[in-house]
Amino acid sequence: MPVIARFYGILIKMYFSQSEHGSPHFHAIYGEFNAVFSIETQEMLEGDLPLRAQRLVREWAALHQQELRDMWDQQQFRQLPGLE
Q: Which residues contact 57 (CB under 8 A, 6 or more apart)?
């Protein structure tokens, strides 16, 4: 699963396998914590990310929502900037 962004110790990853299923989503990893977020709503669908990390991921996802949608639809890897 390629890393598409890194910021504040958080890794954002997305599967690019044709066998991927479900609604458009990405994965966030922060230390030993993992979560899955909806691209459309920025809602945490599953996982256990600390609240501060959840807020940062949601902020980042809102800024890059269209790019994330495009990546999901086209199944093409692109590196995205993190939060500054």
A: 10, 12, 28, 35, 37, 42, 44, 49
Ordered by start, the domain boundaries in the chain are: 3-74
DSSP structure class, residue 65: H
**36: closest CA among 18, 19, 58?**
58
Do residues 84 and 51 make contact, with C-beta atoms less than 8 angstroms apart?
A: no
* In contact, 80 and 64? CB cutoff 8 Å: yes
| pLDDT score recorded for residue 62 | 97
Global pTM value: 0.91
Amino acid, res. 71: M
- Token digits of residue 67: 């790019």
